[in-house]
Amino acid sequence: MLKLLQEETPKATWIVKDNKKSLLSGCKPVTLPLSKEDTLVMKKMIDWVRVSQDEKLNTDKELTEAIGIAAPQIGANLNMYYILLPILNEKTDKVTYFEHALINPKISGKSKQIAALKPGEACLSVDKKHEGLVPRSYKIHVSGYDFLKKKHVSLIVRGYEAIVFQHEQDHLEKKIYYHHINKKDPWFKKEDWIII
Ligand SMILES: [Zn+2]
């Protein structure tokens, strides 16, 4: 299990829902080195997602299991998000993690190839179900300062990982996944889209 960074236990009530204006009011760039306050925001995001994925710590399922969270979702309108994707090695049964805690992330390149998750997307800040495909770029170039790696990172990601980054980046840019769903025909897809 990944360790927690704060003594305070993450709570479901930390999450700002999409009925609050602040979720869609945009985010400010973050100054490096991080201030104490901004460090706390990042640590709270990391702990929230880590606990949500931990069966022992999230016993009563108080936290909805999450793979990513963006700062405005815990009430801080700052350009930061955290992604934690567990990867199970089926041969060894061991779990490794694809993990990034990005500060001032930028998506600078997007493929024309579109991909979407077969069941659609979901979000911690959205209680109502919004069905439909969310078209995203299949491949992206994302860069930013990684709080955990303590350095600037530049990544090319594809498929599921790329979709997760684009979902979180949306939170910094006044968007939510359902804004991308085709209103007339939610499950509309073009022939060449990759459905994951
Ligand atoms: Zn979300």
TrEMBL record:
Taxonomic source organism: Spiroplasma platyhelix PALS-1
Name this polypeptide is given: Peptide deformylase
Membership in a protein family: Belongs to the polypeptide deformylase family.
Catalyzed reactions: N-terminal N-formyl-L-methionyl-[peptide] + H2O = N-terminal L-methionyl-[peptide] + formate
Name of the gene: def
Pfam family, one: Pep_deformylase
Cofactor: Fe(2+)
GO MF entries: metal ion binding; peptide deformylase activity
Enzyme Commission (EC) number: 3.5.1.88
Assigned keywords, A-Z: Hydrolase, Iron, Metal-binding, Protein biosynthesis
